[in-house]
Amino acid sequence: MTNKLDGKVAIITGASSGIGEATAIALANEGATVVLAARRGDRLNALAEKIATTGGKALPIITDVTDEAQVQNLVHKTKTEFGRIDILVNNAGIAAIGAIDGGNTADWKDMINLNLLGLLYVTHAVLPILKAQGAGHIVNISSVAGRTARPGIGVYNATKWGVNGFSEALRQEVCQDHIRVTIIEPGLVNTEINDRISDPVAKQNMEERRRSLTPLESEDIAAAIAYAVTQPPRVNVNEILIRPTLQY
Ligand code: NDP
């Protein structure tokens, strides 16, 4: 039986947990060779082994996407090993949320460096390869917070709003090269994302919010990504917004 992504090569950033991990499994199940990028090598190795046991192919490459040299290494190694790159899922991100007044500016820098600059660096590094191939697909993980501003998440809002603006401009720049750009906007998903919140009030508020509804699971978002990247070349799924049923 053939799978929809047989012969395709996909890089997934932030593949060591949550949405990235589930996406790597989903795309490997569709036949893609998946390149797993994040900082925690032990997690990436365990995931690569898991994918291999189900007949999939995965290559872990330890990468901090906020470091442009490491990003160049990720893309160069992928191209050298597999000869092509078809799909990039820019998923690595943090939500170091908290009020703007009195906010932790180190957290702000971390969010901007990762959620925005990291995503830009990986996009910048893969684009010449996609253009030379005459096809490719970039999936950027934004958030409901890229469309709806709320008190207590202002800087996270700014990064995800930035992801949306950048993605739409990119889509228009590269559509004539047959390169597709998709924005995925999840609501609350049950992952490790809260671990990175340094503000105790913001953390408690977020945990209470999560308890007040049944959050999405990472697999729900992975299924949306798999849907977008398995459409025929004429179809560009521009944007998918997915909230838990009980989320306002
Ligand atoms: P997780 O915390 O489970 O995953 C975050 C991933 O990002 C990890 O794999 C982590 O790996 C990676 N990462 C962090 N810093 C870096 C770095 N410098 N370089 C490379 N990778 C890095 O969270 P989620 O799965 O929830 O988050 C994934 C994406 O989904 C994010 O962009 C987030 O904003 C978005 N999102 C999440 C929502 C949610 O409710 N969970 C809602 C809406 C959007 P490592 O630490 O090993 O580097």
TrEMBL record:
CDD domains: CAD_SDR_c. This is SDR family NAD(P)-dependent oxidoreductase. Transmembrane segments: none annotated. PANTHER family: DEHYDROGENASE/REDUCTASE SDR FAMILY MEMBER 11, DEHYDROGENASE_REDUCTASE SDR FAMILY MEMBER 11. It holds the Pfam family adh_short. It comes from Calothrix parietina FACHB-288. It comes from the Bacteria. Keywords: Oxidoreductase. InterPro entries: KR_dom (IPR057326), NAD(P)-bd_dom_sf (IPR036291), Sc_DH/Rdtase_CS (IPR020904), SDR_fam (IPR002347). Residues 8-192 form the Ketoreductase domain. Belongs to the short-chain dehydrogenases/reductases (SDR) family.
